[in-house]
Amino acid sequence: MSSLISNFVGIKSPNPLWLASAPPTDKAYNVVRAFKAGWGGVVWKTLGEDPPIVNVSSRYGAIGFNGAAIAGFNNIELITDRPLALNLAEIKQVKRDWPDRAVVVSLMVPCTEASWKAILGPVEDTGCDGIELNFGCPHGMSERGMGAAVGQVPDYVEMVTRWCKQHSRLPVIVKLTPNITNILLPARAAKRGGADAVSLINTIQSITAIDLDRMAPEPVVDGKGTHGGYCGPAVKPIALRMVAEIARDPECRGMAISGIGGISTWRDAAEFIACGASTVQVCTAVMHHGFRIVEDMAEGLTTWMAGKGYTEVRDFCGAAIPNFVHWDDLNLNYKTLARIDQERCIQCGKCHIACEDTSHQAIAARRDGAERHYEVIDAECVGCNLCAHVCPVEDCITMVPVDRGLPPRTWKQHPNNPMRQDAAD
Amino acid sequence: MTDLAAPCPDIRTNRLPHEDYQANFGDCHPALTRHEARVEASRCYYCYDAPCVEACPTGIDVPGFIRRIATGNLHGAAVTILDANIMGGMCSRVCPTEILCEQRCVRTQADQHPVAIGALQRHATDALLARGEQPFRRAPDSGRRVAVVGAGPAGLSCAHRLARLGHQVTLIEARAKPGGLNEYGIAAYKTVDDFAQREVAFILGIGSIELVTGKALGQDVSLTDLRQSHDAVFLGLGHNAVRALGVDGENLPGVRNATDFIAQLRQADDKAQFPIGRRVVVIGGGNTAVDAAVQARRLGADEVTIAYRRGKAQMSATGDEQDWAQTNGVALRLHARPRRILGDARGVQAVEFEDTREAGAAFTIAADMVLKAIGQYFLPTPLQGSRDLEPLEIDRDRIVVDADRQTSLPGVFAGGDCITGVDLTVTAVEDGKIAALAIDRLLRG
Fold it and tell me: What is the ipTM of this complex?
């Protein structure tokens, strides 16, 4: 039997599925509903100094894809707009009522030691399990010198992390912004500052859409819009790469990772864990479907782990990292060819037109009366995968490795590479 | 069902509560909502070399128009359809899509459920017609005149295309209203809210088409005259005769042609006032039989039977039409060939059938009304009296045409049900379009 029980830098929870600091974790009512549904933990929506900030109406933008809602999501909401004392009281009560769940508190105050020191004590008094430093919020707060404005400057990340470690006994998670060229720089800074963990990604600066009637970015607030923070399924690939980048970085070794970014299913969670995250945080998916999705996430993850023989999450945590290499470590002698299963083919012709128009002219279209035949021309096929991706039928086009009888050879060794390693190497 | 002791034929009006007629003759397949259309459009794979396009007699770019619906370009979707088929609106209602585009949809192989192409087509074309705009402009006037005889699907399609190409058209119709079978020959619930006339108005709205109704070829005007007064002639004459059973009792009161029944019912403003038998027997196995039988049920007939002389597979009514009949409580009696119709001067009482599988086996079905739907054909009588009838070749009750729909007479074209081929609205529209393009080439030398 596989177990999802999680211990993340000393923070225990019945499963590694947490809710991210966001609208769903803004108050006790929602958090209690989430715990009842089965979420292992929450990161409480970011607290700041009083007086509370003021939010706008409306706050969300979204893009759908091919008839499905919310492929990508964006918000222009800021941190909590409720008084600090109210949040602290609720956090204390919730933690008391739900001792087995992880309650981490997200924080964002001005970049002075006094401000951070002042808030750490009252937060610790709630009995919460840890703090998450919001260095990622890409809008509204960053203009005030907080959020991403800190996260984009590695020295600030290190400095604030150090203050928090110094003035609090709680585990410190540093939440990173993806709005930066090299994610390793703030991650390493967090490590140097003494962070127990990083969590990523926060949202990506974005405009989801322009309202073509009002000629303003969505969501439109009284005729105008602003950039927001992008999240949801569309950002998963970006998040996954950044998580994996940190997981394989020798300088970041030993620092835990909480994965965030478009996680909607148990499979997404498993992928983040395989890339080195030991907990995952979810927001958009619950905003789209409600807290109940955790049932399938926990169940699916457990079932999959059992099938693979993993008894606990750490058995496969980071398992994909050794295979996440740089491009010049890939074997250039490896070759696959597309294979079309004619029994499954529904003759839609999408593989042909994709290859013909945009790739290698490697799929022939033949007609035999009304019957259409699409066949791979092996001599032209470079094994690029495009046809397999455009094919609407599962397992109809597969990429089959061909043995060319050649030893593995990377770009580092390739004769076309003027900088290749000496053959003697 | 063999209650021969029944008294006078029971044929009357108002068999149902009044509100039932509205429901029974309302839209049998209501239009898609915008949401439904978006969801359905997203199911289209946007195939390359899409089989559905090939399956459409008018060659509508189906993936192209569905993609336009999906992106919110509803106007572009409608223009894509109407460019290939100016009667895209009616075809979306009456086409047997289950044996045309939707049968070839690759989704039928992928998940058994084709994209609802017909319903999407209606969604796009209804929106354009509702806005009352004309998507096509006439080319500069060619100075040529073409006579189009018959304002049914073939004639209207031909007239519209000719007008688009810059020619003047005289459109001559024998009946009081234009539309042909769209107006007189389709079950009422398939085309509600006077759609046939609204579509005709849309088609004529392009201009340069002079509609003359109540003038019949062979009576009020001759082909010879038309050839003299016009640069070319298109004949979209349709069927003008109904096959007879050739059995005793065929002329008894209460025995009618299904086509007349359908036509009169279509023109009846108050369906409650339309007389219908308590027990109705429809003889035939095509879509006309189904249209008649289902409407008889919906008028309140208790027992409606379609009797067909061969098996289910041989019926020309499509599988969907057969299902529709059965869903509406119509009984299907197969292998039943009428031997005679029983009754007296008061009316019909029953139909006696022989079982075509078993020599000598016979049975009767009691009936208050008998509707004959065993086929229609074309009689060349309208062409008689034309001085040059001789060269207009007719073969097995159909006008012979070439690939351009040109008859054996130079400059005379024909299309629709009066020529050889499948008798569908959509094929008639294609005939008219092809002929118009050929006439244009001819006139421009």
Answer: 0.86
